[in-house]
Structure formats: C-alpha cells, structure tokens
Amino acid sequence: MDILCMGMALLDSIIKGFDPEPISASGYRAASGSLNVGGEAVNEAVAAARLGASTGIVCALGEDAAGDMILSYLERNSVDTSYVVRVADHATPVTTMFVRDDGTRKSITNGAHRYNFHPDKLVGDLPHARAWILGSLFRAPFDDPEIILSVVKAASSSGALIFGDTKLPNFVKLSLDDVREALPYLDFITPNEDEARYFTGKDTPEEMADVFLSYGVKNVVVKLGAQGCLFKNAEKTLRVHALPIDAVDATGAGDCFVAGLASQLISGATIEDALSFATGCGAICTTAVGASTALQSREQVLAFLENF
Question: Could you report the per-residue pLDDT of 216-233, keeping only the tens digit for each?
C-alpha cells in the first residue's frame, strides 16, 4: 500500500459555542454537539485515502459501540482495516472537545486513552508501505521508547518514508532524550508550535527545528496554525504562509496536513509543492466541524489552491 498509519483511534464529542451560564442547577447550553470519528491515526488514514492513496491503519478499538462506529467509518472510506486490533476488556477512547468561535479548542481525555496495544508486536506481519505515519507520537501507543524504536526500525528496514506526528504527553511524560535512539530514523517530524516549544524549550520555530535536527531527525515541519508552517533540514529553510480562510474548527487540521504532505512526497513532489498542498489540506479541514468532514478529494484540494 501507499501509506500505513499507526496510533490512536477514538471518538470526538465536539461541543461548539458552549455557554458557561447555567440554565438550571445542572444544565448548560451549546450551539451544537456532535460525535465525530477521530484520533490522529484515523484522521490521517481517512484523509490519505480520500486523497487517492491506498491506505491502511494499525490501531486498537474496544469491542463496544464506539469501536464499531470507528471501524465502519474507516471501511466506508476505503481504509484497509485488516490490522485493527479489537480488545474486549478495554473501552474505545472518547474525547470531549470544546471548540471556540475562532476554531481553536480544548480537549478532555480519560483513562481509556492510556491503553498501549503494542504495535511493535505486529510489525513483522504488516504489509509493505511506501510511507509510515506514526500519529500520536509521545502518546499511547507511542509513549514507550522501546515500542517507538522497534516500530521505526521496522519501517526503516522496509525502505519506507517515516513520519512522526507528535502530541503533547498526557499520562506518560517523555522527553526527546527518552527517545533519542529512535529519532534518527524519522524522515519527518511534524509538531505544532506548542508541541515543538514543549519538547525543545525554544521560542522561535527556527530554533525549535534546530533542536530536532540536532537529535538526528532528517526534516522538521513546525505547524504554526494561522501563521502557516516552517520547514527546515540541513540544506534549506522554507516558510509557507497559511491561506486566508474563515476557520470553523481546527480539529484534525494538522492530521490532514500530514496526510497531504506524505501523499505528495511519495508521489514525487518537491518539498515546496508538497508543503503547499499540505497547507491546502489543513485549511480545508478547518472549514467544517470535525476532523474528517470537509476534506474530500485530491481534486478538491487542487481546485481550492487555484484560488490563492
């Protein structure tokens, strides 16, 4: 297949326009509430499949209604689910997200997000893929240095292009030093600005990128939201500006960005063209509530970019 995505799968309960003034002793109002399939691995797999890449996913789901909903959604979007692990004694994670009017959000996780399903034990049976995307890097299942190292070694030995899409730690606190041995295997690391600041302790995107490069990562993309993104490697530094749009919900925008980046690079695009395309994917994602609502096809992205 073209792209194999690994990491967290969950349901997002998205509450938009929350009014903090109670209407009764225990009642509150919001403009809208919805259930949306999410999790970095799911968002990236669905986006990559819609962009035309043959895509598979490695994730864990409980044997519950939430897990059934996610599995059905993946199958409807032509994602290969052969390597989804169903677990009877562990609930599928559900995240509650409060989305502000400008599209930014806060999320609430719970104990179900701690589950580590050991994808390292599956790598010998996985199909060849041109790119592996590790979503949820620094969160379960990739919050164990040994698991991370085992997976990136397997991906590297297969000749795949390896992407590490980071998250801020929640239950297990890892630093770059904790995963020092694994980082040189990453072809790309794609933190957002808050994540990059947390892991590097630096204030500017250029300084943040330099820290990741010093650990052996080959290419760094710092996602800067409304400010676009910064790309840096040993040879060049690029700034790509964000597109002027009215954002509704930023949930999943970074995941769509990574899926767009990977799909373009394995197709032979230059880094400049790949970053431009990825920026378009992320921008489209923000135009509707939910991580996988707005982005529909490669043709949609290309037509969208023609307007800028």
Answer: 999 999 999 989 999 999
Burial of 143 from C-beta contacts in 10 A (0-12 / 13-18 / 19+):
buried
Q: Is 205 helix (H, G, I), strand (E, B) or coil?
A: helix
Domain residues for the domain of 281 are: 3-18+30-305
- Predicted confidence at residue 290, as pLDDT, reads 84
Res. 185: pLDDT tops 90 = yes
pLDDT higher than threshold 80 for residue 103: no
3-state secondary structure (DSSP) of residue 209: helix
Please report, for the domain that includes residue 157, its CATH number. 3.40.1190.20
> Is 23 a member of any domain?
no
**How many separate helices (H) and strands (E) can be counted in the chain?**
8, 13
pLDDT at 308: 86
Helix boundaries (H) for the chain: 40-50, 65-76, 145-157, 193-200, 205-214, 253-265, 271-285, 298-305
How many other CB atoms sit within 10 Å of the CB of residue 5? Answer: 34
Nearest to 191 by CA among 40, 294, 48: 40
230, part of any domain: yes
Which pTM value belongs to this model? 0.92
